[in-house]
Amino acid sequence: MSQSLPLDQLVAACHWIGEKGWAPATGGNMSVRRDEHVCLLSESGKDKGTLTRDDFIEVDIATSQSLSGRKPSAETGLHTMIYRLFPEAGAVLHTHTVNSTVLSRVEQGAALLLHGYEMQKSLSGQHTHLDTLAIPVFDNSQDIAALASEIEDYAARFPLRYGFLLRGHGLTCWGRDVSEARRHLEGLEFLFECERQRRLLEKA
Ligand SMILES: CSCCC(=O)C(=O)COP(=O)(O)O
Ligand SMILES: [Zn+2]
After folding, report:
1. Ligand 1 atom closest to Cα of 23?
2. DSSP assignment of 80-106
């Protein structure tokens, strides 16, 4: 059986994300790397749970410019930043879930620390619940270029793996391919739900 193409895998991932309710009201954006220079990014303003192959736009990774007249995601600069920072990154998924939106506001520190969860091992290279996983949290901004620059500066000084949270906005995560990006998204969302519940129960 022939293996589906990365874009087909990404479209299936978008439908899965939509079914999960993780991209409500046109929120979220998704992309896949085509090669060293170009990625395919979801078109801005569309319902991401019902995207088709035709809803993805070729974008130059170096300049973040669309190679056609159509408007790619408002957050294009964050996707291209990830592809420039991490040559091994093959797919980027951005979602607006309740957990990522609320936890990123409750967490006042520079990172959401996850510790003691077996499902930390769902993330590539993680082998024990005894380690502490730090998912950085950045203040939300409508200035995507400035936000990308802030995150690039962070990545120059600290390890940046799996994803980052935008405070009161959502999660952007990535993987070597669509399958790994999906696993990282699902694993992080599970961990966020656990952490949100833990904080609620420990306050009770
Ligand atoms: C109502 S969604 C606000 C924009 C956003 O945060 C998002 O993730 C979707 O923007 P896009 O331009 O990619 O549709
Ligand atoms: Zn968003």
Report:
1. 8
2. HHHHHH-TT--EEEEE--HHHHHHHHH
